[in-house]
From TrEMBL:
<comment type="subunit">
    <text>Homooligomer. Interacts with ARC5 and FIS1B on peroxisomes.</text>
</comment>
<feature type="transmembrane region" description="Helical">
    <location>
        <begin position="120"/>
        <end position="143"/>
    </location>
</feature>
<protein>
    <recommendedName>
        <fullName>Peroxisomal biogenesis factor 11 family protein</fullName>
    </recommendedName>
</protein>
<keyword id="KW-0962">Peroxisome biogenesis</keyword>
<dbReference type="GO" id="GO:0044375">
    <property type="term" value="P:regulation of peroxisome size"/>
</dbReference>
<dbReference type="GO" id="GO:0016559">
    <property type="term" value="P:peroxisome fission"/>
</dbReference>
<dbReference type="InterPro" id="IPR008733">
    <property type="entry name" value="PEX11"/>
</dbReference>
<comment type="function">
    <text>Involved in peroxisomal proliferation. Promotes peroxisomal duplication, aggregation or elongation without fission.</text>
</comment>
<comment type="similarity">
    <text>Belongs to the peroxin-11 family.</text>
</comment>
<feature type="transmembrane region" description="Helical">
    <location>
        <begin position="83"/>
        <end position="100"/>
    </location>
</feature>
<keyword id="KW-1133">Transmembrane helix</keyword>
<dbReference type="GO" id="GO:0005778">
    <property type="term" value="C:peroxisomal membrane"/>
</dbReference>
<dbReference type="GO" id="GO:0042802">
    <property type="term" value="F:identical protein binding"/>
</dbReference>
<dbReference type="Pfam" id="PF05648">
    <property type="entry name" value="PEX11"/>
</dbReference>
<keyword id="KW-0472">Membrane</keyword>
<keyword id="KW-0576">Peroxisome</keyword>
<keyword id="KW-0812">Transmembrane</keyword>
Amino acid sequence: MNDTVDRLVIFLAKRDGIDKLVKTFQYVSKLVRWQVEATHPDVARRFQQWEVASGLGRKAFRTGRFLTGFNALRRGPGSTPTFKILAVLANAGEMVYFFFDHFLWLSRIGTLDAKLAGRMSFISAFGESFGYIFFIIADFIIIKEGLKEERRLLTSSKEDTSKDATESLRKIRADRVMRLMAVAANVADFIIALADIEPNPFCNHAVTLGVSGLVSAWAGWYRNWPS
């Protein structure tokens, strides 16, 4: 029990940890509001307020987040030309997303003209979805390479039963799980971004948005949880 509490404290001390918790509040509120709005409109209104407050709170907390992508590129975008290109495109999209998200937040809270919200939302969501495409491609390439290396190690492990081979297999499998979680989160967020770019009955449905938001939040929760 104490170990779980310690991990929770560490998790919530991180910016991403707080973000995933508040994101859970945001999309649980959306689903509850959709469920009760026909029968309990007053309760639905309260959950809508919670959803809006959570969304605005997350935007405020992400102030300056676009510098993360810049720092990732400054430290070195990748080990091969392919990964360098993918990293530049992915981080560029994410930087656009977080940068224009600042203006969306300011227009939503009334500091800037509220009419800017629609335009800022479109630009931010477009950058977000653009970046996710290349993050997903990069993760799938690495997963594929990991599967090849795993098969090689399993073939050679008949002769090599050393701790190094076992540890290498463990790291490959652990990395694959983390990357699959990243893919799940990015696909879910891509669906949410599409709802802003090109509104449609499927992406904009409360259940689609709610489930996508929770998949993204809980996949991120898993990836950031202290080991």
